[in-house]
Amino acid sequence: MDRNYIYQESWTGAELLTAKFPLVATTTRPHPKYIKDATAIPDMPIVDKTNVCSLDSIPSEHLVMQVRDLFDKQKTAKGYVQISKIGYVTHEVLLPWIRLHNVMDFAHHLKEMVRWLSEKDRDANKDDPFIKSLLLKLLSQNDIIQHRFPSPCGVHLSSKSILLFSGESWIDDEAVDGILATFQQKYGHRGSYLFIPTQMFSQWSRSYQSDSDQVSSLYPWNWNRNTVQAMMKEAKEKFDVKAFAVADLEGHWGAVCVDFVDKKILFGHSTDRGNHQLHVVFDVAKEWLQACGVPSKTWRIARLDVAQQKGASGSCGINAANAIERCIEPSVESWNFERSRYHRLRYLRFLIEVRSLQVGQHRIVLESMQLRSTDALLYSYSLPLFPGSRRRQQQQHG
Questions:
Q1: CA–CA dist 210, 200 (Å, integer)
Q2: What stretches of the chain show up as alpha helix (H) in DSSP?
Q3: ∠ CA 143-149-153 to the nearest 5 degrees?
């Protein structure tokens, strides 16, 4: 593929994995500095929209943000920012660089997902029909970065959210909400369940901690008031009546269960992180109930059993979902590190309705890159995705 750092909408996953990206400069000395006039620039190139796509190296995301901040501080898009070993850059290169980093980050996660799906173990291997179909989709789908995967429960997950299920990655709020939606579809007939969207609970938490009565009209405290009132009436007849949420504890997910029958609020999470926010979670849940006309000040609080993750694991969101599911169906296997792949694949199967691609179409895509099979593509992974640069580490969550 010719070097072109501007993302092309027609790119498939296979094309992304074979793209030749530039090196990433992670440090620079001296630090970037703003220059108003470039007339006295000695022996360093000016980087603008005419040559930004032909560079052999680009600044790291952190450096790009520093450049943006320097321009913002000057309150102008004019002038230059000096970056050691790269040149004097103009404001117009920021958007292409930000976009490129997003594409490179996606390519990194795509590479990890294909590796992960291709592993063989007792739970699944790449000959599994679901895994094979998903691999074909990821490699052959045009515009894979913008693609959204349809789900039987009605939600459409972005490719980015799907890729975060690989390995021990931290899953995002879109994936968490998707899992909760599948629970509603799978178990809704067994009792009365309400699942609070993650953005809703997060907004409530921010509002509560800021001592502000102002909340967005999208996230009112009395959200689903009529449903909550109906659930309280059902609880008098001893039905299984619960509300659930997955709470964000500053980059770490925890599970919330509001039990309308026993009048208690349960909360748990998978590490020692976020313990200082426990009272916030309980208070936010009570505040929501109060706003819905439920006198909850005397409700008990209790610990929800959530499987504990190991230090190398980022499965806090998977663990929280697993704990909620076990509240509804206790026979579901509890998460453990050794079976982490099984649990992640299980939720992926709930979430994705992947239609098998025609074998011929897949063959044409791969042969256009002079690759005869998926195995040949996997073999190329012995080379770094970003040649000559250190692989960027994903921010640790969970």
A1: 16
A2: 13-17, 61-74, 94-117, 129-140, 159-163, 173-187, 198-209, 225-235, 278-291, 316-328, 340-351, 359-367, 374-379
A3: 165
Cα dihedral value 193, 194, 198, 202, nearest 10? -120
The DSSP output letter for 260 is: T
Whole-model pTM? 0.82
Structure-token pair, residue 198: 């993650």
* Residue-wise DSSP of 81-143: EEETTTEEE-GGGHHHHHHHHHHHHHHHHHHHHHHHHT---SS--TTSHHHHHHHHHHHH-TT
Distance CA 42, CA 177 (A): 54
Q: What 8-state DSSP symbol labels residue 368?
A: T
Please state whether 232 falls in left (phi above 0), alpha (psi between -120 and 50) or beta.
alpha
CB 55 within 8 Å of CB 100: no
CA separation for the pair 88, 32 (Å, rounded): 9
pLDDT digits (tens, 9 = 90+) for 156-199: 899 999 999 999 999 999 999 999 999 988 888 777 899 999 99
Domains and CATH numbers, the chain: 13-106 (no CATH), 152-351 (3.40.395.10)
Under a CB-based contact definition with an 8 Å cutoff, are residues 47 and 93 in contact?
A: yes
Confidence tier at 249 by pLDDT (50, 70, 90):
confident
Residue 392 carries which side chain, given as an amino acid letter?
Answer: R
Pick from 99, 30, 115: nearest CA to 66: 30
